[in-house]
Amino acid sequence: TTKTKVECDKEMEELIKTLPQHSCRWLQGTTILYKYQDFWCLQDLLKGTISAQQSFKARPNDVFLCSFPKSGTTWLKALVFAIITRENFAKSMSPLLTTLPHDCIPSLGRTNLEQIQQYQNKSCFTTPISTHLPHHFLPESILTSNCKIVYIYRNMKDVIVSFYHFARGISKLSMEDAPFEEAFDEFYHEISYFGQYLDHILGYWKASLERPEMFHFVKYEDMKNNPTNNVKKLAEFVGHPFTNEEEKEGVIENIIKLCSFENLSGLEVNKSDSFKGSLPIENRLFFRKAEVGDWKNYFTDEMSEKIDKLIDEKLSGTGLVL
Ligand code: A3P
Q: Whose Cα sits closest to atom 9 in ligand 1?
């Protein structure tokens, strides 16, 4: 017999009660994390994760935009959305001008599954879906359907600083009440929303060795340094390459401008609205500074050395440079 939704929910609640809990010190207990299998996760995201694992059905046209939180997800979602929908909207009518990028593309683990299914049913070509899940947590059907995966990653020290401000913004704590040192310590000890950052990267990277043609890696800093080239490659990978004509007409530059931090962070919707997820998050928290190297304003030499050592240990031999 198949279980009803109520029964499944109840089972999940029971399971969650048995998991190790951690109340984030630097968020003064406002955020409870649960350890599920080998990583820490917020309760609401955990429910979404477990139900995605149990029942999400990927389709071959789905393209997954994967990332560790704070490594450029919002930007990647905006870019892919703009690339894919460029023929549907006149420049001044893009939904990105009135909608948070996170509300333009659903997120596996956060958006409810029925909604994702409706969205999959609606589109007959590329269907981008984002997720923060580590690679080994992806629902089986993503792998068996041979879906394409874009993975964005970023300098680890900048991710830590970005994470700190984001979490502090959600809990509305000042820097005195939530000192950076404590956030650093927890992050260093692998207590963050989706496990250890370097393991997250390594999981996707290792999987890419087996099926390189299904993976496309984007480095946040590279996208900043050379957006034209990187947006071109991204468009090719997701199956919407630019024609010569489009290149001449400046379509790539227009997409870059539309999705730029300067443009998006200044839009009314991103300044004053709230993200309609399970946690109340003000949209503006997704747009902070978008600078490369802001970590230098927060890290001590000792912190920096600790992270360098970790990167050395974990990434040596991979060719990945953070
Ligand atoms: P900072 O906190 O360093 O400013 P995510 O989207 O994965 O949550 O990551 C958020 C980080 O990306 C934040 O970094 C944010 O400012 C930056 N960001 C958001 N939109 C961006 C854009 N359009 N271009 C470049 N960076 C962007």
A: 70
Determine which residue's CA is closest to atom 7 belonging to ligand 1.
Answer: 70
Pocket test for ligand 1, best of 187, 258, 288, 298 (most atoms within 8 A of CB): 288
Residue 1 has pLDDT above 60, yes or no: no
What residues does each domain of the chain span?
Answer: 57-315
Both structure tokens of 13: 């609640």
**Among the four given CATH numbers 3.20.20.410, 3.40.980.10, 3.40.50.300, 3.30.300.20, the one describing domain 57-315:** 3.40.50.300
Mean pLDDT for 272-291 is: 86
What are the distances in angstroms from CA 316 to CA 202, 308, 312, 320?
Answer: 11, 11, 5, 8
- For residues 129 and 62, the answer to whether their CB atoms sit within 8 Å is yes
Give one DSSP letter per residue of 255-287, joined into a string: HHHHHSHHHHHHSHHHHH-EE-SSS-EEGGGG-
CA 286 / ligand 1 centre spacing (Å): 6
